[in-house]
Amino acid sequence: MILRILTAVLMMTLLSGCWDNKDINHRALPIAMGISYQEGNYEVFLDIPKVTEKNEGIQVISAKGDTISSAIDHISMNLEDQVDLLHLKVIIVDKAFATRGLDEITASIIRSRQVSPKTMFVICDEPLNRFFERINNPSNGDGNEIYDFFQKNAGWNPEIAYTPVWKLFRGIHSYTNDVVLPIIQSGHSTAIQSVGAGILKNGKMVERLTNEQTLLYNVFDGNSMQGKIEVMGKATVQIVNSRIRNQSRFVSQKPELNSKLYLKVIVMDAIGNPSMEEIKTELQGLLQRVLNEIFNKIQRVQADIFGIGQHFRDNLSRDELAQWRTEYLPQVKIKLEVHTIIRNTGNLKLPE
Q: What is the pTM of this model?
């Protein structure tokens, strides 16, 4: 008798958490969510793959609400399946929302645990209703382009910024770390087109980078992943390895950062038979010029996307770190050296 009672209690304990689970066939699993903000109201777009025999096609559903949660609840209420955001891969916001600030939505995502912290954050350069209408045109593909575009084993490119939710959350609550988010729009000959990246300070977009600047940001940040660089119309080189060494110090109570960037590249093609030394000199000059442009830009808007302040944390108190962006970052003297090794030239024979 006692054994039966213990067995019954054990079964009730094991089954107590299972009643609220829904069969996967009754759940809608969006791969992308768009969020637009206008005049105090939110409009949410969910990109949900259609469940068919061929698994082709995307269903875009939208709703408006005073909050993001209310808009999602409205979609779920009118949908035959329950919306499950756990498998969401991309969150797309319009420029108005990014400029207003993403701190509230990021905190809500982390707090609710309904969305994976690895989900990508993206800014759209056009109205979201037009963007979703264009990219989900059947002539553009099977509807999974927005997912594949940001996958490193698929369509991701080093000219595209890569920032998940957790990194944005860290940047909002850090004194010395800001982030960049990719900016996209619907393409003309392709479904999606990259148009650079947005610089976020405390979760608000304050400036932009071009695609070329985004590539070199990724290089400096250690995320180059075989990016290609055009060298003054003379050659195209591919980065195969990069590393950086930083040394920080205070000189006359002003921060100074000495950075040495080491690159190994392969020459992909060349025009006009330039020498190896010419390519190396032009490449180093190009990298220094563009990176200095980025440094000047982030100092002007006081957004530390390179985490420069991390190198000075041991020299500053917590109260001083709180003033890093406004007091110290604009004064940082950055000395950059670029060292390039041309590993090989493939099948090209170039003069030394």
A: 0.85
